[in-house]
Design goal:
The structure is a homodimer of 147-residue chains. With 147 residues, chain A is an alpha+beta fold. Chain A has 4 helices and 5 strands. A 5-stranded antiparallel sheet of chain A has the order 1-3-4-5-2, covered by helices on one side. Chains A and B meet through helix 1, helix 4 and strand 2 of A and helix 1, helix 4 and strand 2 of B.
Chain lengths: 147, 147
């Protein structure tokens, strides 16, 4: 095992992060990223779509999982990791239900595989809404980068 | 073919979207999503990591591809699509290089597969920085949702 890449994490460790998505969040995300798709930012347009109202950007919703992974990263560093844990990628992200403005989301991040030699973890992602309906599923990879 | 799901897109169509990532973008993304990982928001902490300075959140960088896909969606609607194109998912996203504050990114979105019966496209994603170095690769799925 390369001690330099040790993650100090264990399979089964998990973090939940809850947040209500506001209209300001969606408008600000559009401004930051340049994604002004009217289904996200134009209520009159969105009302005429199958959704009936504005929906949050997928990448904004993914940000809540990023927040959950930040807690996992902090645990790793506090426990003595030499490397810096950073996002290495996402696999098979699926937006299975739209997220509406005012929706309260719970992002769940569950470590599933830990590779302390390579400095990598794979974690299961799930976001549910205020009705406990699943909005997003997927997998996230964290990698420990050493100077 | 279900006319309801027709995408009006063709394999090979592509969009490029360019943006410079500012410190304000990263700080605002942290505020919106709750991801205050110090490697993103704390310059003093980031200086001591392998990166040497603050890096942008992966989900923020993905937002530029969301902006590119919004242009593709607009083309589809302007050409007569009955359904609303929305993000259905991402496959095999890999952050192959860090994105620093001040970096100017080019997000390239290339439609590769079009399924007009199902109302689905798969597109190749690539983000390069100001030195033409690849920072992100992956695949995006758009789905046409009918009322």
């Amino acid at each position: 095992m390369s001690a330099a890449h040790r993650t100090f994490l264990l399979p089964g460790e998990q973090v939940e992060f809850e947040k209500t998505i506001t209209a300001a969040d969606v408008d600000m995300f559009a401004k930051i990223t340049g994604d002004y798709d009217p289904v996200h930012v134009d209520g009159a347009y969105a009302a005429k779509t199958a959704f009936g109202r504005r929906i949050a950007h997928g990448a904004l919703v993914m940000g809540l999982l990023s927040a959950a992974s930040a807690t996992i990263s902090r645990w790793s560093v506090e426990r003595g990791a030499a490397g810096t844990p950073v996002s290495a990628g996402y696999d098979r992200i699926r937006f299975v239900r739209p997220v509406f403005i005012g929706g309260t989301l719970t992002a769940r991040y569950v470590v599933e595989e830990v590779d302390d030699a390579a400095g990598r973890t794979r974690s299961r992602l799930e976001i549910t809404n205020q009705d406990s309906a699943v909005c997003l599923v997927g997998t996230h990879i964290l990698a420990w980068v050493v100077a």
